[in-house]
Design goal:
By secondary structure, this protein is of the alpha/beta class. The chain has a single domain, classed as Rossmann fold (3-Layer(aba) Sandwich). Helix content is 34%, strand content 23%. The protein has a seven-stranded mixed sheet with strand order 1-3-2-6-7-8-9, with helices on both faces. It is globular, with a radius of gyration of 16 Å.
Length: 208
């Protein structure tokens, strides 16, 4: 079971949810600023810690050994987590998934493999694990999902060209994706990128 914390929406009866997945060596603490930045009164936020300890933070998978098995295990844990949210009254059609770096990779895994359509999936400064396999094994609803994927021109950890090629491969496999590039390194590019995320989320939340 994954360690989580729910930050309630300002509108207490709202059932809109954003599940937030951090990057390598980070934790849920690194994204406590996100609900305030998105400034969406209807959005509950579920912060999640990855399962493995890593240099004072956490990791979704081992980047040096057995990456595939780590990704598969974390994917199963996230499937269970989303199933639990459904049981708790958060419909997947009103649930967004947000991931940074390793969390972006896990967001892609969920979006292409989870058997329920989500409100939207947002991936920042990440990459795909084995995109050939992802496309080949995609769920029946994968092509109905909506993705926003962003990357930086000067990312020193994950070169833009590599991630861009992977995303084009997913798009060629039928995945609906808004791909945006920012002049940034391995980070979130301040107000401009936050505004893009706000717009993506807002467009998928009908007026109450």
């Amino acid at each position: 079971m994954l360690d989580t914390e729910l930050i309630p929406a300002a509108e207490s009866d709202s059932k809109w949810l954003m599940v937030v997945l951090h990057g390598l060596g980070d934790s849920m603490e690194g994204f406590r600023w996100l609900p305030r930045a998105l400034n969406n009164s209807r959005l509950n936020t579920l912060l999640v810690n990855a399962p493995d300890d890593y240099l004072g933070g956490f990791s979704w998978y081992d980047i040096y050994n057995n990456t595939a098995s780590g990704v598969e295990r974390s994917r199963g844990l996230l499937f269970d987590l989303l199933d639990q949210q459904r049981a708790d009254g958060f419909a997947m059609e009103q649930t967004f998934l947000f991931g940074f770096s390793q969390g972006c990779l896990m967001t892609l895994e969920i979006g292409l493999r989870y058997p329920h359509r989500l409100a939207g999936l947002i991936g920042i400064s990440g990459y795909a694990h084995d995109p050939d396999k992802l496309v080949a094994e995609q769920s029946p609803v994968a092509t109905e999902q909506s993705f926003l994927i962003t990357h930086g021109t000067a990312d020193p950890l994950l070169p833009l060209a590599q991630t861009k090629a992977q995303m084009e491969q997913l798009q060629a496999g039928g995945i609906r994706m808004q791909w945006e590039v920012f002049e940034k390194e391995h980070t979130i590019q301040g107000e401009a990128e936050v505004a893009l995320i706000q717009k993506f989320v807002g467009e998928r939340m009908p007026p109450s």
